[in-house]
């Protein structure tokens, strides 16, 4: 009978229940668990396993190359970090995702922009949220290649579908006319439906240097700023900070 129940559980894709049933039944008998408690415990195990599997899948699909958490962030490095500490910590609570808000981090290289979006992205994966991390140039290069082989709609869907799309390092290289138009299509397709987080080394006034024209730059900025949280990080590069063993 036990083997038959396990096989039926496998047929219903209740793998954890199938695997754990014999040991849980034994535990229940030894501890005089009521039938309802045994069943509830089995389903709790199945639900938790699926939750953990979803978290693992979300992380694998996110393309994040590291697991950064906000407790690793040095708020004492610069006053701009201290002033925005509450806002930054609130960002990690992921409320912006529910409100379909965008997040924009502006500042010079090394001030912590990428760290914060990666930490928020990792937190989102741990909440079972679909996330995708990319650099601006990597995304544009993939879109241009897709345009060339007539798979652009499929690739655009790839960037439109995540609940959180992180686009890192906007502004270091100009995107050109084609790249700017493709970038606009990504942002336009996500506008008010999904959250996008970006990091840039340039203020909005200089976005004409990134995109092909001020018209495209303005259209992109308008969509991103419409419903967003903006963080401006100042100070010197954290990577170049003086360390005790170097002094």
Describe this structure in words.
The chain has 11 helices and 5 strands. The chain is α/β, with parallel strands linked by helices. The protein folds into 2 domains: 1-62, no CATH class; 70-240, P-loop containing nucleotide triphosphate hydrolases (Rossmann fold), CATH 3.40.50.300. The chain has a 5-stranded parallel β-sheet. The chain is elongated, with a radius of gyration of 23 Å. The relative contact order is 0.14. The mean pLDDT is 93.
Summarize the structure.
By secondary structure, the chain is α/β, with parallel strands linked by helices. It has helices at residues 2-11, 15-30, 35-62, 79-83, 85-91, 95-98, 113-126, 136-148, 152-160, 176-190, 214-226; strands spanning 102-106, 131-135, 164-170, 195-200, 228-232. The chain contains eleven helices and five strands, in the order H-H-H-H-H-H-E-H-E-H-H-E-H-E-H-E.
Task: Summarize the topology.
Blueprint: H1 2-11, H2 15-30, H3 35-62, H4 79-83, H5 85-91, H6 95-98, E1 102-106, H7 113-126, E2 131-135, H8 136-148, H9 152-160, E3 164-170, H10 176-190, E4 195-200, H11 214-226, E5 228-232
Parallel strand pairs: 1-4, 1-5, 2-3, 3-4
Strand ordering within the main sheet: 2-3-4-1-5
Percent helix range: 40-55%
Count of helical stretches: 11
Rg result: 23 Å
CATH fourth-tier homologous superfamily of the largest domain: P-loop containing nucleotide triphosphate hydrolases
**Structural class of the helices, strands and pairings?**
alpha/beta
CATH fold title of the largest domain: Rossmann fold
How widely separated are the two ends?
72 Å
Instruction: Work out the number of β strands.
Output: 5
